[in-house]
Amino acid sequence: MDGDLNNLVQQVRRDILRMVHAVNSGHPGGSLGCVEFFVTLYKRVLKVDDNSDSNDMFILSNGHISPVYYSTLARSGYFKVEELDSFRKIDSRLQGHPTNHDNLPGINISSGSLGQGVSVGLGIALSKKLNNDDSLVYVLTGDGELQEGQNWEAFMYAAAKNIDKIIVTVDLNGQQIDGSTKDVLDIGNLNLKLESFGWKVLEIKDGNSLDEIYEVISGAKDIAFKGKPIVVLMNTVMGNGVDFMMHTHDWHGKAPNDEQLEIALSQNPETIGDY
């Protein structure tokens, strides 16, 4: 299993790099930083059965990291891998930010206007609670995105209404488009803040470790449905897996040129097959 997942991680990285390079636009940095999370979520965590009315649901709030989302969905059989070649092109279902009006399998909401995913996830989780649905809602949001005030209304509401069918993961890479999150608008000690808001807080110290992600998310599932919403603080490295893209905001929204692409791909050899 681990070998297969590591191979998939490498291939998803290649997909991300080739997608943004092909159209000279997109967001490789955050996408690369979340590859391990997406692979773990879709290959080991989500409970999805086409024959069931009770399925887990995933909401991507920070929609600009769509390359990792699209690649993982395609590599998980939601649509043909070859469709990745249409990323950000005219009339493509794979727009720069996910939209659900084109009926792309796996896309549950349109996202890109930052700060809304937690609220949407809470609405779905509340519906599940009212309907005695024992499945979970997973939301991914970013640390820079938490500068949006709507998140804090959602955090307050969830705890006040005991919405316990939701697991929110915060991608803590410390970077956003204009610089580090500390320099742009420091969000402070999230652990203490979210605990004070009434959430159960867990931490993934290495958000680029498949094993640790699975261990912590599995632990979060074990304590769900007990009256408290759960948030996982996941420490990742922006641009993970490509040495010149790591630890900097420079690659938040910039595509590699031809030479940079070849260097990046050489660091992530093909394991499954490019589209």
Q: How would you characterize this protein structure?
A:
There is one protein chain. This protein is α/β, with parallel strands linked by helices and 275 residues long. The chain has 10 helices and 7 strands. The strands form 2 sheets. A 5-stranded parallel sheet has the order 1-2-3-7-6, sandwiched between helices. Helix 1 packs across helix 4, helix 3 runs parallel beside helix 4 and helix 3 crosses helix 9. The longest helix has 22 residues. The chain is globular and about 50 Å long. The two termini are 23 Å apart. The mean pLDDT is 96.
Concise synopsis of the structure shown:
Helices cover about 40% and strands about 10% of the residues. It is built from ten helices and seven strands.
Describe the secondary structure blueprint for this structure:
Layout: H1 2-23, H2 28-33, H3 35-45, E1 57-60, H4 66-75, H5 117-130, E2 137-142, H6 150-160, E3 166-172, E4 175-176, E5 179-180, H7 181-185, H8 190-196, E6 200-204, H9 210-222, E7 230-235, H10 258-266
Parallel strand pairs: 1-2, 2-3, 3-7, 6-7
Antiparallel strand pairs: 4-5
